[in-house]
Amino acid sequence: MKKIFLISGLSVLFFINCSTPRTASNNSVSRGWINQNLAEAASQYKLLKANLPAGQLPRSTFENGTLRTCTSENWVSGFYPGTLVYLYETIKDTSLWNEAVRSANLLSKEQYNTGTHDLGFMMYCSYGNLYRLTNNEQYKQVLINSAKSLITRFNPAVGCIRSWGKSDDTKEFRVIIDNMMNLELLFRATELSGDSSFYKIAVTHANTTIRNHFRPDYSSYHVVNYNPLNGSVIYKKTAQGAADESAWARGQSWGLYGFTVMYRFTHDKKYLDQAQHIAQFLINHPNLPADKIPYWDYNAPGIPNAIRDASSGAILASALIELAGYSDKQQASNYRDIANTILKSLSAEPYKAAQGTNAGFILKHSVGSLPGKADVDVALNYADYYYVEALNRLKNLK
Ligand code: GLY
After folding, report:
1. Where do the domains of the chain lie, and which CATH numbers do they carry?
2. Rounded-to-integer distance, Cα 271 and Cα 236, Å
3. pLDDT tens across 309-346, in order?
4. Torsion over CA of 161, 165, 171 and 177, rounded to 10 degrees?
5. Confidence (pTM)
6. Atom of ligand 1 lying closest to residue 250 CA
7. How far, in Å, CA of 112 to CA of 147, rounded?
8. Which of 213, 283, 348, 363 is most buried per CB count within 10 Å?
9. Does residue 174 line the site of ligand 1, with CB under 6 A?
10. How far is the CA of 355 from the centre of ligand 1 (A)?
């Protein structure tokens, strides 16, 4: 402590802020409570399955509460099979497993899709989870092929995987913070194939992202556009946030989750520091409400009447549970405390849907893209995915 007090007044404030739990740690949840919520989630997903037209995957709800579906090329296609695997893992109901396998099969052709950066979401959340429980060689090959497709979008001059646009576009090269979530697939592909090029690309992408996506307060921009020929930054903007300089809520959660995964695979303290700084920015943010479910943007106009984004809360909870495992006792207790508050909030009104409603989705009140007027204040399959993942992570700690 003494050494830290010598540094500067600002550092002292920062240190105190980082290390002091802001809420009481008597906020635990019981195994029975977790099991009850997972059982209710499984029963909702059986309803979702019953509602699905052939060949379709669930995406979200329309504003009137009916099911909105998508097909395999949509970036959210992998979350439904992935959620089913998580639910099967804890509930052990084979109908959940069979539906996970059936629905993942609908995505099989996407392993060769080089037109998207979202292959981590699509193929890792689905096939990655199937492989985790089976070690099935066929799933392993799908993961390796998906990683090969993803790295076709890597540009060494930029040091990033291209998010949006065509691979041969020489005018612009847009990278979104969400892309940090696709790196887990690359690390696993190196482990599964022995080819270190996937790992190296993941590390290069993360390092470029630290350099260019983050502001001094550890909030992040949504979109950075690079010159594809020399890697210089053309602009930093938002597409789904409230303003170019705002902190779009889901983007902040993606960054936190992504850098926590970076530390899991590399054990490089630089990534742990990055994740912890992002966590501090988020959990100490004056606009994070008492129930810890973020507004759709931390700088949304109209706060406290702005709408919330349950998906960013679910991702934040899941990331904090993992990050707690890499952090000192006091930080870990703070992270778990916030994660528990989020999960308790999501497991009650107004976020959790009554059984038999919400077209079969578990959660309500997420925001896809408010500026794009798409999926605003509705159920989203990725809110459910990270909510169930977080509950499983909590259960595994017990
Ligand atoms: N990756 C797109 C989103 O988070 O909305």
Report:
1. 2-396 (1.50.10.10)
2. 22
3. 999 999 999 999 999 999 999 999 999 999 999 999 99
4. -50
5. 0.93
6. 4
7. 9
8. 363
9. no
10. 27
